[in-house]
Amino acid sequence: MTEYDEGKVKNTENIVCDLCDLPLEPAKTVLTYMRSTFATILLRCPKCKQCYFPEDLALGQAVEVESTLEEK
Amino acid sequence: MGPREMRVVMRACTQEEPPECTATCPVHFNAKGMCKNLLEGHAEKPLETYQAKVLFPRLVSAFCLAPCEGRCAKQRAGQAISIRALEENMCRQAESIPSPAKPLLDLPKTAAVIGGGIKGLACAFQLYDKGFKVSLYEKEDRLGGHGWLLDAELARLDFALLDDMPWKVHLGVNLDEKSIREEIMPVYDGVLFATEAAPISGLSWDEQTNQCTSQPKLFWCKHPCPSPYSIIDAVACGRKTATSAERFLKSVSLTASRQREGSYQTTLYTDIDETVPVDRRVPYSKPWPRDAAPLPGDPAPPKGIYSAEDAGKEAARCIQCECMKCVKQCVYMQEFESYPRAIIHEMATHIDMLVGQKQSGPLINSCSVCGLCTQLCPYDIGMPQSTRGARVHLVENGDNVEATHDFPMRDLAFSNGENYWFWSHGPDQKASRYLFFPGCQLAAVLPELMLPTYQYLRQKLGEEVGIGLGCCGAPAHWAGYDEKKKDELGEILTQWREMGEPTVIAACPTCQQQLEEAEPTMNILSLWQVMAQQGLPATEKQRPRPPLAIQDACGSRHQTKVQDAVRELLAAMGCPVEELAYSRENTKCCNYGGLVAYANASLAQEALAERLSESDADYLVYCGACREQCQRGGKTTWHLLELLFGEKQPPTVDISLKRDNRIKVKQDFYQFIKKDAWTPSMEKIHLIVSEEVRKTLDKRLVLEEDIQRVIEMAERTGVRLKKADGRRFIAHSQLGIITYWVEYEPVEEGYVIHSAYSHRLQIVEDVKKPTGSKK
Ligand code: SF4
Ligand SMILES: [Zn+2]
Fold first, then answer.
1. Which residues from chain B sit within 8 angstroms of residue A36, using beta carbons?
2. Which ligand is nearest to the CA of B722?
3. In Å, how far are A10, A31, B531 from A26, measured between CA atoms?
4. A72–B767: do the CB atoms touch at under 8 Å?
5. Handedness of CA B300, B306, B308, B313 (dihedral sign)
6. For residue range B196-230, what is the model confidence (pLDDT) as tens digits?
7. What are B345-395's pLDDT values in tens digits?
8. I want to staple A42 with a disulfide (CB 3.0 to 4.6 A). Which of A29, B24, B69, B459 is the partner?
9. What ipTM was estimated for this complex?
10. Is the CB of residue B758 less than 8 Å away from at least one CB of chain A?
11. According to the model, what pLDDT value does residue B598 have?
12. Cα-based distances in Å from B453 to B503, B506, B509
C-alpha cells in the first residue's frame, strides 16, 4: 500500500485518541490476511496503539491488496 | 467435486469439437476457418493449411468430391456452403501456392515408397515431413499417376514442387517380388506400397493400420481407388499408411488414438441461425464429371469461379458452426468470454495448483448455479456441478476465501438463531398435520404477509397447521459449505420429526428443493399447489390489472407442478400474464442464486438488468429473493402473495431492514400462537441514519447491527478516536473476520451515523480493548 508509506501518512485531520488524549502519529503497523503478514504505515496512538484505517484506504487500496492475496 | 471429476464433465462439452465439414473431410481441412479468413480478406492463411492438408491443392480443389458439403450443417437451413468451389477459387486466384515447410527433424531411418501416384506421393510427403529419408520407386517415367489424367495443366503446376524434394526418385523401375525381397526389404527400415496389385505373395494385411502383419516393416495402401475416383481419399489413404509406418519407425503403438482418422461423426451441436442467407452465392459449379475420370481431350474444368467479392459473400454464408448454446443465454459465461469446457478446465487447473490464474476465484464464485446451461445443453452438461463442486472442494481443503461469503453465511446464522428461528404447533394445538415453512428471504422481504398466509392455511386446512421459521441452508449450499448445510438441515429435520413429521408447505422453491433433497420421505408441497387446490382467499379482490410477466424462480426449474399452480392462481384471479421467452424450465435466475451478488456484484447486476429488460411489463414472482432482486433492479415487481393478500407494496428493503423484518415475523407468530410478546436479547442502541447513509451501508454490506456493536463497545470501553471538531468519533471492531469502522456522533436521542465501512485485512497490532466499562 504504497501511498501510505512513510512520510505520506500525516495526521492532517488532527485526530486524537480519546482514551489517551494524544494525537495520532504515523507508525508502522502489522496487518495480516490470507496467511500473509505485512506492515504498512497507519496513524496510531503512540501510547495505546489504537489505530486508524481511513475510509478511502479501506475502499481503495485495501480492496486491491485483499483481492491480490485472495488470488494467491 | 474434485478436479478429476470436473475434467470428466468438461470433456462432455462439445464446444471445442470440430464442425461437420472438418470432421467429414478425410484429411480434416478446416473449412470453417477458411470461410472466416476469406471473409476477413486473408486468403494466404487458409491456402497454406490447405496445401499442407491436401498436398496437391489445385488438383484436389478442382476434383474433390467434397464429402464435406454433403454434411455441411448449413443444409439444415438452405444450401451447403460451396466449400470446394471456394477452395478452387482460392487456389486459382493465388499467385503462388506455398510449398510444404522444411521438416523440423532429421531422422536417420529410411523408408522406400513403391508407387509414385497420388497415394505414394502422399506417403512420401508425410514421411519426409516427419524427418525420415525417403526413396521413391515408380514404374512409369514420371511421378503423379492419376493426377495427370484429371487435368494435365493443374497436375503440372501441382507436381512442380516435386523437383525440389530431396528424395531419391527411381523412375521407370518395375520391381518384381524377387527384387523387392532382395534389394528393397533388407535396405530400408520401412517399405510402403502404393500399388493396387499385391507387391509380394502371401501377405497378410491389417485393414485398420495398412500394416502387413506377416512382415511388420511392410505397409500397403491396399484399398482400391473408389469409383468415381476420389483424389482426397487417395491422399488420405497414403497419409494413413504413412502414419502407421512413422509409428512403426518410432517404435510406438500403431493403433493408439486413431479413432478419428479419416471421416468421422462430430459431436458438435450447432444451432442454425436462420438469418444467414440461404442460397449459394453463385450457381454451383460442379467439379469435373464425378462419375469418371476425364479422358484426354475432355473439356477443362470450369475456371474463375468467384470474384474475390463473391467469394467473400459465399464465405459469409458459413454459420461458423459452434455450440455456445448455453453461453448465448448466460451473462456469467459471456462475461468471462468462455464456455463450459474451457471454464471447467481453468477451474480444475486452479484447484490443482492454487496458483496464478488471477481470474479463478471470481470464475468459481460468479455462477448463479441456476442450471439453465444444463437445461439447454444437448448433452445435459453444465456448470453448477463444477462451480458449486469447486466451491465445496475449496472449503473442504480450507482454500476458500472466507470473506467472499461471510455476509450471507452470517445471515444464515441470524435466521437460524434466536431472532428468527421458531417452531411451534398452531395456537392451543398439540399436533400438526401441516407445517408452514416460509423460508428466510420471503419473511425478510414481505413480513406483513406471513401471518395472513398462515391464517389462510389454518382456515382451509384446519387448526393443525404448525409453523417453522428458519433458513433451509441454501446459502451454505451455494457457498460450498456442505457440512454446514447438513447441520442446518439436520436441525430442521429434528424439529420436523419432533412435531410429528407434518406435511411441509414451502413458500420458497429453493427451500422445497433443499428439503426434498435432504429428506426424500418428507411430504412436501408448495404453498402455490395448496392454494391452487384450496381456492383463493376471501380477501382477494379481483381488480383489473395490466398483464404481468412471470419470472419463474430458478429453484422451480424442474417443479412443473409449482409453475402450473402459479399460473392457475393467476388465471383464477383474472390476472393476465405474459410468458417471457425464457420461462418455466428455461427460466433465468434473478442472480440472488449462487450468491453471485456477494462474489461479483457488478456481474449480478448486469445479469439481472438483462433479465429485467426482457419485457416492459411488471414482473410477477413467487420467490422472496426474486422479489427483492427484481425490485432492486428497478422493476415494479409483485410477489404472488402481494396480489393475494396485500394492500399496498411495502418499502424496498435493505440489508438491515431484512433483519428487522425477520424479527418482526417471529414476534408476530409468537404473539399469535403463544399470546405473548417476544423480545430479542440484544439490546439495541438507537441509531439515526439518513436515507443516503442507509443506501451506502446497504451497498457496503454493513448492518446496523454491526454498527451497534462497534458503538456499544467503544462507548463501554472508551476506545475511540476523536475528530478535531470534538463531536464526531471513530471506532472500530473486528467482528468475525471483517473489521468494521463507524464514524458517529452521540446526540441526545442516540447516535447519528455519518459513515461506516469495513475491510478484510486484519490489524495485528492494535489497542488492547480494556474489559469492563469506562472510568
Ligand atoms: S448455472 Fe446458470 S449462471 Fe451458471 S453457467 Fe449455467 S446458465 Fe450460467
Ligand atoms: Zn491511546
1. none
2. 2
3. 6, 15, 65
4. no
5. negative
6. 888 888 888 888 899 998 888 999 998 877 777 88
7. 999 988 887 654 445 688 999 999 999 999 999 999 999 999 999 999 999
8. A29
9. 0.96
10. yes
11. 95
12. 16, 12, 16
b/e code B283-299 from CB counts within 10 Å (16+ = b): eebebbeeeebbeeeee
Averaged confidence pLDDT in chain B? 91
What confidence tens digit (pLDDT) does each residue in B251-280 have? 999 999 898 999 999 999 998 866 666 677
Cell 462474489 sits on residue = B599
- Asked if pLDDT for residue B482 goes beyond 50, the answer is yes
CA distances, A61 to each of A30, A40, A65, A66 (Å): 16, 12, 6, 8
Please report residues of A whose CB lies closer than 8 A to that of B730: 15, 52
Nearest CA in chain A to B738: A33
Q: Could you tell me the pTM of the whole model?
A: 0.85
CA B540/CA B309 separation, integer angstroms: 66
CA triple B675-B678-B681, angle to 5 deg: 165
Q: Which amino acid is at A15?
A: I
pLDDT above 90 (res B157): yes
Assess whether pLDDT exceeds 70 at residue B775. no
What CA–CA distance (Å, rounded) separates B283 from B260? Answer: 33
> What are the angstrom distances between the C-alpha of B394 and each of B386, B402, B498, B655?
12, 10, 35, 27
Q: Which three cell numbers stand for residue A13?
A: 485531520
Cell numbers at B50, concatenated = 490447405
Cell of A11: 495526521
Q: Which three cell numbers stand for residue B540?
A: 382477494
| Probe target for ligand 1 pocket from B336, B347, B372, B558, with the most ligand atoms within 8 Å of CB | B372
